[in-house]
Structure formats: structure tokens, C-alpha cells
Design a protein that fits this description.
By secondary structure, the chain is mainly α. The protein folds into 2 domains: about 140 residues, no CATH class; about 250 residues, Up-down Bundle (Glycerol uptake facilitator protein). The N terminus and C terminus are likely disordered.
Amino acid sequence: MGLVVLVVKRGMGDVGECLPVPQAAGRHVLRALAWPSNSVFPKDERARPAIYTSQVFTKRARNPIPVKTKQPTAADVRVACSSPGSAIGLPANFETQKGGVMSYLVPSELVLKVIDAGEMKVNLSTRDTLIRAYMGGAILTLAAAFAVMVSQQTGYPIIGAALFPVGFCILYLLGFDLVTGVFVLAPLALLDRRPGVTPAAVLRNWGLVFVGNFMGAFTVAVMMAIVFTFGFSAEPNAVGKAIAGIGEARTLGYKAHGAAGMLTLFVRGVLCNWMVSTGVVGAMISTTVGGKVLAMWMPIMIFFAMTFEHSVVNMFLFPSALLMGGKFSVGDYLLWNELPTTLGNMLGGLPFTGLTLYMTHHRTAPRRWPVSAAGIASSVREAAANPAILAGAPMGAELMTRGSVAGSARSPMP
């Protein structure tokens, strides 16, 4: 027999109830119950309301495995040995590994995590927002300088593009922020009507992150200009000249084409944040560092290799180019790069990444019903006792029509 342990936490105390599961199914009962991932709890653990988790013991996994998920129904708690990973939201291609901990989230859970992240960032204090944005801008632009150096030294820009994502991965794993990321995350929390998330709060967050990113990027621009010119006592070295050339080409170059150049600049900004926001969101789908890095690396490499316009990277490239004698003005930088790029980044991330995921995986997701201790215990007992559920067979008509939440919980959101 495998052993499913239902633990009902109330404050600092736990009350457990053990329910038997057939041996053949025990290895695949990986999770059953938990609290909704969008719950907002006080910092004081003892002040929390009732929290419901599931812990699973099998021959392979003697340690409990608590996992967050939606409010379960009897149908959700099925533990079919013929269909590994069928317990509550696990995808059919899930593979059990060393205790059965999932290494990724299904799309509906991913969108919830993205919305949670947006809510957290909008409600962050001004101090913390600025610090995280400052460090995000600084680390990303250091990676940009590194990529330009590699491209110049090797003569192969694709090598620099392949290595640039290291900066993005570092800042993401350390919890720092980029304005291109919050362009996607914050509006989704607003659409989901999260507490404290208002249009004014979203705009405040965007403004603070933009300022913090610029401060971090400009700090790196000054430092790298000093490095490339020996403290402004000599002509820029080869890398410094390459950066100055990028500044001229991507301001005066667009300006020479007039309206067509402005359109091209804007579209490059759109395409850039389509890829960058895909990296931001994609990193959340994995629960391992390696998976997060891989999910970020691919789209970030694409945007850099194709020379799309990223507002934060440009906060380093153009001020640094000006400090090293670039033949363009601050006005050229703002009008013919930074402002159109920022607008393009704003448009590229939300519609193409955030809204598409939100509309297809969240608006159509099952409702997250309020958690009830009695309802959870009843659902688990019903699932353990009902052969049709344990076998993974379709639910019978009697279960679907007698008022069980099994049917209603799967109805789409209006």
C-alpha cells in the first residue's frame, strides 16, 4: 500500500489523516491538495488561515512532497497507475523521477505564477523596486559590453549573441527586475484584479523600474568608458570604438530614413520584447535552475543576434558611445532610439506574450474553488473508494449529476 497523508494546517498545528491507495498507483500519487497559489497571507505564520497541503509517501519517496495547485475535486484526485501523472493537473508526458517532483508547470499553472509575480512587483516598496531595477540594469548591460567585446575580438557576432544571455540569467535568478519584464507582468495582475494593483500602481512600477534600470545602465556606461579609454586619457580601444559605432549607426542610421526609419526602429522594439518577455515567462515554467536557464537563453539569444532594440541595453550602449566621442547628440539618442524603442518594447511584450497566455490558459482554466477542509477530505475519500476514479476511467453519470463539484469545477470562466 502507498500512503496518502492529508495534512490540514491550522496556525502552528497540524492534523493528519491517512488514506490508503493501491500499491500499483502509489508511485504516481504525487500531489492531491493545496491552497490556491494566488492566496495572500500575512507575514506572521501563526496568523495564517487554514492551509491545506498534500503529502505523499511511497516506497520510493519517504519524504513528504507538498505541491501548490488548484482546489481539487473527486475526479482530480484519481491515481491511475495506467496513466502516470494523472493526479491533479499533471501532464500526460510527466515522468516520475526520484520521488516524483515535477520539473515544470503546466501552462495554466504557469499563468497563475506569472500573475502572482506581477502582483508582487506592483506591491513592492519603492526602495526595493529601485534597488532591484538598478541591479537588473547594471548586470544586463555588463553582459552587453561583454558580448560586444567577444564579437569584436572573434569577428563573429553570433558568438557574442550566444553568450549575452548569461547576464539575463544572472539577474533573473537573483530576483532583479527589467522594465521590459514588468511591461508584461504588471498588466496581467491588473487584468486579474489582484489586491492593490491599479492602473496608477502599474504606471508607478513601470516608472520606478525604468529609472532604476537607467541608473544601473548609466553606471556601467561610465565605468566601461573609463576602462576603454584609460580614464579618458587616451583614444577608445577597439571595443570602445565598436560601441561608439553602434551608437551612431542606430541613431543617425534610422534618422536618415525618416518615417521609415522610425517605423523600423519601433518594430524592432516590438520584436525584441516579444522575445525577452518569452524568456521572462518561460523561466517560470521550470522548477530547476537548468530548466530556467535554458528557457531564458533561447529567446534572449534570438533578440540579440537579430539586433532587435532593447531599451535597457540601449541605456548603456548610447550613453557609453557619447562618452567616448560618438558623433550623435543626446537628442538623437532619445528621439531616434530610446523613446521609440521603449514604446515598441511596451507593445511587444503584453499582446504577444502576456495576453495570449492569459486568454488561452487562464480565462479558460477551471475555477479555483474556495478550499474547505470537509470538502477536501470528502473528495479524497471518494477518490480512494471509487474504482472508476482510481482506474482513470471517465466519471459516471451519477457522479456528474448529483451535485458534486466534479462537473462544475471544470466549467470555463465567463
